[in-house]
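Write out this protein's structure.
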Amino acid sequence: MKYMGSKAKIAKYILPIILKNKTEEQYYVEPFCGGCNMIDKVKGNRIASDKNTYLIEMLKSLTDGIQFITEIPKSIYDETRTEFNNKTNLKYTVAEIGWIGFMASYNGRFFDGGYSGTVGNRDYIKEQIKNTLLQLPNLIGITFQYGSYDEIEIPMNSIIYCDIPYRNTKQYATSKGFDYDKFWQWCRDKSKTNTVFISEYTAPDDFKCIWEKQVTNSMNTNITYKPTEKLFTCNDVLSFNTNNSFF
C-alpha cells in the first residue's frame, strides 16, 4: 500500500536488525503502522496501531473480509473528503472514508494531495487498490489498535518499531504538533522492558544509530531528494552493514 513515509524500500535492510533476536512467542509492535509495509513481512504475534482512526478501521474491515468499492470516481472522492473535513459519517462509514481517502488520494496522502485518478494510460487508483489487496493476506492475524503510541497496550518484552513523523518534514493532519521530547522519553522508558527501534533522520545523543543508508524519495514527478534514512535504538544491539538484505 502506497503511504507517505512508507518504509517499503528499506524493509529488507532494517528488518534483519529488528528481528535478529526475536523469539517465537515475542510480540512485534508498531505504534505508527501507517501502510503496514514493514509489519506485513513479520511472522508471529503482531500488534499494529496508528492515531488515524480512518486507517485503522479500514485495515480492520479489510482483514475481517469486508469488500469496498473498486471504482472511485472524483464525485465519490469529493463526497468522502467533505465528510472527512466535517468529521461526519452521513453517507459513508469511517472505514469507507479511509478506503476512498487512501486509495484515491495522490501518492497515498489521504485527502492531502488531491485526487489521483488516471494520467495517460496509468490508473493510479486501480494500482493502489491492486497493491493493497495483494498485501492483504499478510495482514491477517494482526491485532489492530487505534490510539496514540503512549496509549496502546504493549506486552512486556516486545520488539517495538516506531516509524514516527520525521521532524521538519511534511506531516499528516494526525501527526501535526507531535511532541518529540515526550516521544524520546517514552522510548527510554519502554526500553527498560522491551527492545525499541526508531526510524528518523536524527535522534538525541543517548540513542545509537545502528544502520543508515541514503535513499531516493520523490515528492512529485519533478522533485526528488536523497535523504539518509537511519535506524536508532538505546538498547544493546549489534550494528549491521548497510548492504545486508532480508530478502
